[in-house]
Structure formats: structure tokens, C-alpha cells
Amino acid sequence: MFNLLIVGGTGFIGRSIHNYLINNPEGKKFKKIYIVSKKNKSNFLKKSNYFQTIKIKTDITKTKNLPDANLIIYLAKLKNSKEDTFAAQNIYKILSKKKSKTKFLYVSSGAVYGYLKKKKNLTENYLENNKRVKFKDSKKNDYALSKMKCEKIFLRLDANIYDVKIARCFTFVGKNLISDKYAVREFILSILNNKPIIMKSNFKVYRSYMHEDIMSKYLIKILLKENLRSRIFNVGSEDKVDLNQLGKILAKKYKLQFVDKKIIKKEADFYVPNISRLKKNFQFKNNQSSLDSILKTIKTLKNV
Question: Tens digit of pLDDT for each residue in 54-103?
Fold first, then answer.
């Protein structure tokens, strides 16, 4: 039986993983799940027949100890890269004292690869052969830099004690998608509120969307699997969609007005992963297209 510690477990991914383990057989492998977060948000926690959930409110930049667990997923996202790095360094200091074998998954982001204009699916070794282009949005660039710094911090954990893996996550949908103002979330909210769907960009934007259940399934698989040659995995869907076209399709399906801007810039914003490594190591199969994942999310939210 496993004890799982989720650091920063009240956001989208933490909620998704918790709900997934409640509703799927994988949850039988767990005895206790500790949810550690500074925010006192626990209304999403539901009782499980498989495991006990223990909510712990603490400031991870200052805490001096953590619950003992043989599995750890680190999801924490703080105000800026300085705080993120400081928190990661503090957790690293605590974990460095541990003596028992532990599997550790740091959930990073595809944002580490930087801004991409060309239609080229991003591989895990992209930065080895390409210069990283900064994001124009300073907050997004700061977020990406914090993820890069934290990756390096956790990869330094003693390999004799820790089996460290990194999941670079891309874009997802599901009922737990909450506060961030991503375009697809705005589309979904417009549909739920019967309002016009608005596309705000005046250039081509390409994304792909994996449903939170599939994301959670493979994050748990990455965490648990042993003897992997690779330690870094892209997680997301390869089914790219043009957001402008996606908005039109959704507007037509739900009989709503679609409002877009004229495309005046030649550049494109492309953010889609290459997941060949995930497929090879986990026999990954995703039969849900990006559109299917979005429609499933809308249906679920309408029934809530």
C-alpha cells in the first residue's frame, strides 16, 4: 500500500488526481493521501472507500517537515518564480534528510520550451537543439522560468533514495478546470451561460486538449513505474486544433454567436506536445480528440 503526498494539491491537477483515484481501481493501491496546501480549499475532497485523505494547511516556503510518504507529487504554484524557487529549495532541504526509498514526480509545464511560432510538436529534448524564445507576456515567462529552476532543484535529489521524474504538462480540460483564463475555458463558460463565443487573438493560435481523467491516469503511471530510461515526459494531446476554427465549431453546435478578430499577423502561437516517449513507455492510447474532450467537459458541467 502507498502513502501519497501531494504538495499544492488544491488546484486543477491536484483535484483531478484526487477525483480520479476515488473513481478508479488505481485508488485501491493507496492507504493515505496527504493534500498539502497554503490555501484552505477542501470542498472538492470526497470520501473514498479506498483511502483516507488528510488535508494539511501549511506554508511550504517556511514549513520544516512533511508527512512521511513513499510517493510524492509536487504541484505547487506560487505568486512568482522567486517564491516558487524558494519553496522548492525548502522542500528539497526537507526531502534531503529522508532515508527511505521514495518515488517523486514534479509536475512541470510545456511552457519551459518557450514561445513557438512554427507548427512543430515539441519533444522533450527540444531545447538541446533549439534556442528558447521568451514569451511576450512577462508573467508567462516568469512562470516558465520558475518551472525550469524547480526541475533542476528536484533532479538533484539523491538517486539512491529518490526515483525522480518530471511531467511537462500542456493543455487540458475537465470539470476541475477553475480559475485560469485560458481561451478554451472562456469558450466553455460562454456555452454554459448561453453567451457569444469570443476569439480575442488576431493571429493563429494552435492548442491541443487532453481530458483530466486521461491526464491523471498517466501522471499516476509515470509516478509508479520503475526502471524507466527517461525521467522527463511530455503529457498532453497531439490532436492540434486551430482555436478560431474550434470556436466556430462550438458556436454552431450550441447555436451561439461567434465573434472573432480579423487575422492580421502572420505569426502563430503553437503549443502542442510530441508524446512519442509517453507512447513508447506506457503504451499510451488516447481515443479522445481535443474536441471530444471539450464536449465531454461541457456535458459534465451541464449536469453538475
Answer: 999 999 999 999 999 999 999 998 878 889 999 999 999 999 999 999 99
CA 178 – CA 268 distance, rounded (Å): 26
- Distances in Å between the Cα of 24 and the Cα atoms of 17, 50, 75, 202, 211 are 10, 10, 21, 42, 15
Residues with Cβ within 8 Å of residue 56, at least 6 apart in sequence: 34, 35, 36, 37, 67
Q: Which residue type, as a one-letter code, is found at position 138?
A: S
Amino acid at 77: K
- Mean pLDDT in residue range 144-149: 94
Domains and CATH numbers, the chain: 2-173+211-238 (3.40.50.720)
Residue at 168: amino acid letter: R
pLDDT at 47: 81
Residue 20: its pLDDT value, please? 94
Separation between Cα atoms, residue 88 and residue 94, nearest integer Å? 10
Angstrom CA distances, 209 to 51, 212, 245, 256, 288, stand at 30, 9, 14, 22, 9
pLDDT tens readout for residues 197-246: 999 888 889 999 999 999 999 999 999 999 999 999 999 999 999 999 99
- The span from the CA of 268 to the CA of 188, in Å, is 23
